[in-house]
Design a protein that fits this description.
Elements (H helix, E strand, L loop, with lengths): L2 E6 L3 H12 L5 E2 L8 E6 L4 H16 L3 E6 L1 H4 L1 H6 L5 E3 L7 H5 L5 E3 L20 E4 L1 E2 L10 H5 L3 E2 L2 H13 L4 E5 L14 H9 L6 E4 L9 H4 L10 E3 L7 H6 L6 H13 L3 E8 L6 H13 L4 E6 L17 H25 L4 E9 L2 E5 L5 E6 L7 E4 L3 E2 L4 E5 L4
Parallel strand pairs: 1-2, 1-3, 3-4, 4-5, 5-6, 7-10, 10-11, 12-13, 13-14, 17-20
Antiparallel strand pairs: 8-9, 15-16, 15-18, 16-17, 19-20
C-alpha cells in the first residue's frame, strides 16, 4: 500500500480541507513523516506572492527527493497549470475534487482536475488526527472584492454548508470527545445569507449539542455583526475573543482597498464589545499602495484608540491579478516593515495590559507539551504555560492563580496522585 503525506499551508480552512481529503482516502496509508511518503499532497495557500514562493520551494525540495507531488488548495488555481507544465507536480486538483482524491491518486498518468467553484463539501469529518480541538468549515467563498485579495477568485462566491450536515458533524465530533469547536470558512460572517439563516442562529444550535464546551469563531467582518449575532454575545460557551477584520484604520485607505467597513462605526463596535469584556483581534495591512506618511501617521494614532488585544498583521505583498497590483504609488518594503513593527509592538503592549486588568479564572484546553510545560489557550485566546505533576495533555484545566508575563501567562497546578 503506497504511503501519502499531507503538507498543509495557510489558514484554518486548509486544515479542514486536508481532513476532508484524508477521510476520503481509502487505498493508501497516511503517514506523519514526509520522508516515508511515496506521494505528497500539498494543500497550498496563494494569499500572497510570498505564499506561492513558499509552496514552490517545498515542491522543489520534494522533487529532489524523487517524491510524487499532487497540488491541491488555492495555489492549484493560481500556479497549478504552470507547475504542471514545468513537470514539478504529477497532478493538480481543485477544491471541488477533494472528495475524489482516492480516484485521483490512483491515476497512472499525470492529471489536471480543477472542477468548479460552486461546490460545498458533503463529507462529515468525525475526527482530527493530532488535534485537540475540532474545526468546522461552515461556508465557502466570498462575495467581497477587496482590491488586494485573490481569494474570491480561487474560492468562488459565498455559499453556505447545509445546516443539518454541520450539526451532524458536531454531534459525531462531540461524541468522539471534542469539546472545543472552531468555526472556519472563507468569510464565515456571510453564513446563511443564501439559506435564510445567519451565523448567530447556527452557533446557537451548535451550542445545544451535548458535549460542546466552547465555540471559537474565525474572522468576521465588522458589518456582519448583526442583531442575531449580538444575541449570543453573553453566552458562556462563546469564546471571549472575537476577530474582526479591519485591515486598516484610515478611511482613505479603506476606500482604496475597496473595503465595506468604516473607521467611525468600527470604533463604536469595538468599544461595545470591549464593554462586554471581550478580547479583540483584527487583521491589519501595512504598506498598501497609497499609504503615504501622512495617511500612516493618522491611521496609527487612530489604531492606538482601538481596544485591541490580538493582531494578524502583515506587510502588503503584491498579488498578481488583483486591482492593488497595479496601484500607485507603491510603498517601499523597509517602510512597510517598520510600520508593521510599530503595529505589533502596540498590540503586544495592549494585550499585556488586558491580561493584567482581567485577572479572573481561566479555562484552558491543553493542546501541547514542550519540555516540562503544557500549553493551551484560555477563553480570551491568550496562551498559557502550565507546570503540572501529571499528564494533562488534551484535558480542560481551570486555573485561578497564574502569573502574567509579557509573552504569556504562567501557572503551576498540583494534583493528588
Amino acid at each position: 500500500m503506497k504511503k501519502v503525506f499531507f503538507k498543509t499551508f495557510g489558514c484554518r480552512t486548509n486544515i479542514y480541507d486536508t481532513q476532508i481529503m484524508m477521510q476520503n482516502l481509502k487505498d493508501f496509508e497516511i503517514v506523519k513523516d514526509e520522508k516515508k511518503a511515496d506521494i505528497i499532497v500539498v494543500n497550498s495557500c496563494t494569499v500572497t506572492n510570498g505564499a506561492d514562493t513558499g509552496v514552490r520551494s517545498y515542491i522543489n525540495s520534494a522533487n529532489r527527493r524523487g517524491v510524487k507531488v499532487v497540488l491541491a488548495g488555492c495555489g492549484a488555481f493560481s500556479k497549478g497549470e504552470d507547475l504542471f507544465k514545468e513537470e514539478k507536480v504529477f497532478g493538480v486538483m481543485g477544491h471541488s475534487e477533494k472528495e475524489n482524491i482516492n480516484t485521483l491518486l490512483n491515476e497512472k498518468t499525470r492529471f489536471v482536475e480543477m472542477g468548479d467553484l460552486n461546490s460545498v463539501d458533503s463529507t462529515i469529518v468525525s475526527e482530527y488526527i493530532g488535534k485537540s480541538k475540532a474545526f468546522l468549515k461552515i461556508q465557502e467563498g466570498c462575495n467581497f472584492r477587496c482590491s488586494y485579495c485573490i481569494i474570491p477568485y480561487v474560492r468562488g462566491n459565498a455559499r453556505s454548508q447545509d445546516e443539518e450536515l454541520i450539526l451532524e458533524q458536531v454531534r459525531k465530533l462531540a461524541f468522539n470527545g471534542y469539546g472545543e469547536f472552531v468555526l472556519t470558512g472563507t468569510n464565515i460572517g456571510s453564513y446563511g445569507q443564501d439559506k435564510k439563516s445567519s451565523l448567530g442562529s447556527l452557533v446557537k444550535k451548535i451550542a445545544t449539542i451535548r458535549g460542546v464546551r466552547r465555540i471559537r469563531l474565525g474572522s468576521i467582518e465588522p458589518i456582519q455583526v448583526d442583531e442575531s449575532f449580538r444575541e449570543i454575545l453573553t453566552e458562556p460557551w462563546l469564546e471571549r475573543h472575537l476577530h474582526l477584520a479591519l485591515q486598516h484604520t484610515s478611511e482613505e485607505m479603506l476606500k482604496i482597498m475597496r473595503r465595506r467597513n468604516n473607521v467611525k462605526k468600527d470604533m463604536e463596535l469595538f468599544e461595545e464589545l470591549h464593554s462586554l469584556r471581550y478580547a479583540l483581534g483584527t487583521d491589519f495591512i501595512t504598506g498598501h499602495p497609497g499609504e503615504s506618511d501622512k495617511v500612516w501617521d493618522e491611521a496609527y494614532e487612530t489604531l492606538k484608540q482601538f481596544p485591541l488585544t490580538h493582531i494578524h498583521s502583515f506587510t502588503y505583498s503584491k498579488r498578481d491579478g488583483t486591482p492593488s497590483a497595479i496601484m500607485k504609488p507603491e510603498i517601499r518594503g523597509d517602510v512597510a516593515k517598520e510600520r508593521l513593527k510599530q503595529v505589533e509592538r502596540l498590540i503586544s503592549e495592549k494585550n499585556y495590559e488586558f491580561r493584567l486588568k482581567h485577572k479572573e479564572p481561566l479555562e484552558i484546553l491543553i493542546e501541547e507539551k514542550k519540555g516540562e510545560l503544557y500549553s493551551g489557550f484560555d477563553q480570551f485566546y491568550n496562551r498559557i504555560y502550565i507546570e503540572s505533576n501529571r499528564d494533562i495533555l488534551k484535558e480542560w484545566v481551570s486555573v485561578e492563580k497564574y502569573e502574567v508575563k509579557k509573552d504569556a501567562n504562567y501557572a503551576k497546578v498540583n494534583y493528588e496522585i
